[in-house]
Amino acid sequence: MLQRLYARILEIAAGPNALAALLIVSFVESSFFPIPPDILLIPMILARPREAWRLAAWCTLASVAGGLVGYAIGYYLFDAVGRPVLEFYHAMHSYDALKAGFDEWGVWIIILKGMTPIPYKLVTIASGVAQFDLVAFIGASIVSRSLRFFLLAALLWWFGDAARRFIERRLTLVTTIFAVALVGGFVVLRYL
């Protein structure tokens, strides 16, 4: 079953609507959606290795644009939208700690947290609530998301077929590691 799902994701990744799907997922993940864009970016790069840099750039731009929506949710709609999103992810206590650190470490928080499995929406919403400087937020988001997606693109481009063979031979292991990292990000939010 896992092999069929993997084959289907690769088919979508090579299909004509793949870029639109990647842009949508990258955009909404930065403000409310729980699934990271890596789930599409990885198979898209494996399916089209020559487009690795372009795909990473599009993913970065969509993620930063979506981050602006998260920022706006925190800035303008925290009580109506932001708080329920953070409560849904059981992230209020992490949010409070993150908000307190923005005054001193804001740019570094955005850069470091934006590269981890910790959901980026927490950073974007908290940045808006803290009324963090918008230009600094955009700059730090570009750095953070670029590092994450271009590093992934570089690894997949460099290792290309070897990465694909590794994933295909060890699909259960790769899927498990991805799921653990995703769930781990939410667990870290809950207990930090």
Describe the overall structure:
With 192 residues, the protein is mainly α. It has one domain (2-191). It has helices at 2-14, 18-29, 38-47, 52-76, 78-88, 92-113, 120-129, 134-169, 171-191. Helix 4 (52-76) crosses helix 7 (120-129). The model has no long low-confidence stretch (mean pLDDT 80).
Largest sheet, described in full? none
- Structural class designation: mainly alpha
Shape: elongated
Return residue spans where pLDDT drops below 50 for at least 5 consecutive residues. Answer: none
**Computed CA radius of gyration, to the nearest angstrom:** 17 Å
Number of domains: 1
Strand content: under 5%
Order of helices and strands: HHHHHHHHH
Strand elements, count: 0
Q: Supply the number of helical segments.
A: 9
Termini, distance in Å? 35 Å
- Mean pLDDT across all residues, rounded? 80
Helix fraction bin: over 70%
List the SSEs and their pairings.
Layout: H1 2-14, H2 18-29, H3 38-47, H4 52-76, H5 78-88, H6 92-113, H7 120-129, H8 134-169, H9 171-191
Which descriptors apply to this entry?
192 residues; mainly alpha; 83% helix
Offer a quick outline of the entry.
The protein is mainly alpha-helical.
